[in-house]
Amino acid sequence: MTTNAMARPHAHGPGSDVPPKTKSQLLRSYDVADFPTLNGREEDWRFTPLRRLRGLHDGTLPAASAAPRREHDALPEGVTVAAVGKDDTRIGSVLVPFDRPSAQAYTSMAEALVVSVAPDTEATTPVVVRVTGEGSDGASYAHTFIEVGRFASVTVVLDHTGSTTLADNVEIDVADGAKLTLVSIADWSADAVQLQHQKVRIGRDAAVTHVSVTLGGDVVRQYLSAEFAGPGGSIDAFGLYFADDGQHLEHRQLVDHGQPDCRSNVNYRGALQGADAHTVWVGDVLIQDVATGTETYEINRNLVLTDGARADSVPNLEIETGEILSAGHASTTGRFDDEQLFYLQSRGITADEARRLVVRGFFIELINKIPVEALRDRLSDGIEARLDKVGA
Q1: 368 in the same domain as 292
Q2: What is the pTM of this model?
Q3: Which residues constitute the domain of residue 378?
Q4: Is the N or the C terminus of the chain less surrounded, counting Cβ atoms within 10 Å?
Q5: Does 355 share its domain with 255?
Q6: In whole angstroms, how far apart are CA 80 and each of 91, 129, 148, 175, 226?
């Protein structure tokens, strides 16, 4: 069996028999066998409803009869999209799995889709890759690699729709001086399950804007991890999610500052409504001892619209040096601001319309981070449709 998973040695944290004290010590391996089967008591999985994952977490679900279709719109000059084999040396060069589903996806995927942006390219139109699920009756596994050459500038959209049971990895390599805006949309059908790990490596003086939008699916769990490959890099990670009846939407980030003079900003916002709607946000920032001059901030805000919904929010900072510019985090969860509603109603606006305006205002800043007008309109319409359900 000649695959990268077999050819590459696995990598462990210091002492595999000792629980990791830090995120930097997590077990990392391409081999599924190195990871114990999940039982829900693990810290990183304690919020996730394993019974609803259909076996993606333990490999017991048979393979799907049809994998999600991946298609792309017309490409701007300097950009190519191609399928490659698992023996391509780029695959696995950025992302080494640190949990069992990610390792399972790496081992089980048949081929990878590579989006390649040539150096010095200034793409005038976005690169849109559409991932369409063909059914949720079996497990699907996928892999995407996005490479942005030196001093290139591009917007890439990953648009997920349809029905699926999917575990996938996305590797993102942004070279020195390049600029990438990546918009990742999970607008799945109501029965979809997805476990996804996205890993971005940011070169010297490179800039990444990452926008995650999650509206559809039964269970969607996205893990975004980022590391810096040189000084002067930056990442702005924005997230928008809206959970309805019974949905479980989970977002986790790990920003690893291992280079000096880099900047990160994480801003995720979510709304919840309906019985058993559940959202989870866990933000981890690691500032290593060599990462002097770091500037970082993370915030998560949740708006609970009805009884029966639950939001879990956990920001974490791990700092190994005192020679930084700034580091902070914040988290808020609550209902409508009564003062805002009173102000609007005092000017003749009905209570329902006042609530709708507050929710629009809550999301508008993040929606405007999406540099594609048609996507902004589509996502705004989706949020409006959800508000209509409760008359907000």
Answers
A1: no
A2: 0.91
A3: 336-392
A4: N
A5: no
A6: 16, 12, 11, 16, 24
